[in-house]
Amino acid sequence: MRVIVPVLTVLAVIVALWYAACIPMNVKGVLTEAERAGAEVNPPGAKDRRDLGAFGLVLGNSFAIPATWEQARPRLPAPHQVANELWNTTVMKKITSKRSLVYHGWVTLSATLLGFAIGTGLGILLAVGIVYSRVMDMSVMPWAIVSQTIPIIALAPMIIVVLYSIGVQGIIPKAIISAYLSFFPVVVGMVKGLRSPDAMQLDLLRTYYASSAQGFWKLRLPSSMPYLFTSLKIGIAASLVGAIVGELPTGAVAGLGARLLAGSYYGQTVQIWSALFAAAILAATLVAILSVIEQRVLKRMGMA
Amino acid sequence: MNNDTVIEAKDLDLVFETNDGPVEALRNVSLTINKGDFVSFIGPSGCGKTTFLRVMAALEQPTGGQITANGVSPEEARKSRAYGYVFQAAGLYPWRTIAGNIKLPLEIMGFSRQKQQESVNSVLQLVDLEGFGGKYPWQLSGGMQQRASIARALAFDADILLMDEPFGALDEIVRDHLNEQLLQLWRRTQKTIAFVTHSIPEAVYLSTKIVVMSPRPGRITDVIESPLPEDRPLEIRDSAEFIEVAHRVREGLRAGHVED
Description:
- The structure holds two protein chains of two kinds.
- Chain A has 13 helices and no strands.
- By secondary structure, chain A is mostly helical.
- Chain A has two domains: 73 residues, no CATH class; 200 residues, MetI-like (MetI-like fold, Orthogonal Bundle), CATH 1.10.3720.
- The model of chain A has no long low-confidence stretch (mean pLDDT 90).
- Chain B is of the alpha/beta class.
- Chain B has a domain of 66 residues.
- Chain B is built from eight helices and nine strands.
- In chain B, a hairpin with a 4-residue loop joins strand 8 and strand 9.
- In chain B, helix 3 packs across helix 4, helix 4 packs across helix 5 and helix 7 packs across helix 8.
- The longest helix of chain B is centred in the C-terminal third of the chain and has 19 residues.
- The radius of gyration of chain B is 18 Å and the shape is globular.
- The mean pLDDT of chain B is 87.
- Chains A and B meet through helix 9 and helix 10 of A and strand 5 and helix 3 of B.
C-alpha cells in the first residue's frame, strides 16, 4: 500500500493534466464544429476567433468543454480515446487484420528482436576485441562513438537505399538499423564489464599460470554479467526505436512506424497516439522481461 | 645452495618508474628460505614486503640481482605450479560454490574430475570447512571465506604457500583462531610458507624465521631465527621468550624508522 498509493497518485496527476491540456488544445476545433451545427458561439465566426487565445475561448464558451474530449480528429486526443483505440485495435480485432495493432506490433517486434540479436552479438564481439587488443581499442572505439553521434533519422533512409540497391529488403534493413542503435550500449557496457575484475583477481589467475582464454571464460565473462544486463536493457529499447525509424522512410505498410506515418498523413491523431502507446508498452514489456531474466541470473550467480 | 633451499634471493633490486620519479621498492635484498620454513615478513607499509613476495611468485620482475625458487627461476616455478598464493581479500568467485572455487585452479591446471573432487574433500578438511563445499561465499563469514581461499591455494598441492596479509581484514579473535589453525596446517602439510604481516605478535607467534624490513628504500634490516618451540599454544604469547623476540622485532622496526 505504501508504494501503490504514491504510484497511483502520480498516475492520476498525469491523467488529470492530460485531460486539462485537451481543453485549450481542442477548443477551437470544437467551437468551429459547434457553430456549423448551429450552436451559439462567443465570439461568432471562425475568423474572429482565430486571434483569440485558447484560454479566453474556453472561459467564454464553457459549454464546449466536454466536447473537447470527444472529437473524432482532435489535436490532442483524451486518454480514454487513446485507451479505446488501443482496446479496439488489439483485443477487438483479429490479429491477422491490417488494422490490428497486434499485427503491426509483431512486424516491428520481429525486426526489433532480430536487430537486437545482431547488435548484441556484434557488441559483445567488439568488446572482447577491444579488451584484448590495444589496436582495436584505439581503432574501433572512436568509430563506435562517432557512429552514435549521427542522427539515426538521417542515416536510416541511406541504409535502406544502399541495401535495396544490393537487393536486400524486407526485415533485414530494419533489423540492421535496429542493430546499429543497440550495439553501442552493449560495447560500452561489456568493455567495462570485461575489465571489471580487479588486479588481485587477475594476479590470482597468473599464479595458476592460466591462459588468457581461461581468464576470459572463468573470470572476465562471468564478472561482466551485471554490466551486460544493464546494457541489454538500454539496447532493447534502442532496438525498438531503430525498427520504428526504419519503417518511416520506406513508406512501409506494416509496423508501428507505418501506423504512425499513416496516422500523420490522414490527421488521425488518435491512431498516432495509440501507436505511440503501443510502442511504449512494447518497450516496457521487453525491458521488464530482461529485468526478470537479469534478476534470476544474477541471483543464481550470487551477484544480485 | 643445498637441497633444502626453496627460495634463494641474492642482491635483489627493484625500482618502479613512477611519474614522481623512480621508487626503490627493494634494494640489496638477500634471503634464503629453506624447505618447511615459516617465514614472516614484517615492516611498515612501503617497506617492500609485498613486493618481495610478488617477486618470488614472478608477479613482479626484479631490476637487479638473482632469485631462484626450487632451483629454477620464479617464472619456471610458477609454470610448474609451485605456488599457492593467498591475498588479503578472499577473492572467492560469488557465482561458484566453495567447492567450485577450490576447483578453479584444478580446472585451469587440467586435473581430472575425480582428482578434483578428492582434492576438494581433503583441503576442506585441512581448513576445517567440511560440509561447506556446497555453500556460496556470501553464506560464509569473513574468516570462513579466508579459510576457503587458503583451501583453494592448497588444492593443487603447491609446496610453497605465499600469504599476503591474509588475516589483515579480520578481527582479533578470528585472527587468533586462524593463526592457530594455520600453524597446525603448516605442521601437518610441511609446506614452506612466506607470510606478510604488519602485526608483531602474529609474526612472532607463527614464524620460524622473522624478516624485518624497512622502507625507502625497501630493504631487510634484521632476520631473526625464532627460538620458540614447534608446539605453540596461544598462551605462548605470554612467555618470556616470546616477549623477548617481539621486543627484538620492535627494535628492528624502530631502527629502520630512525634513518628517515
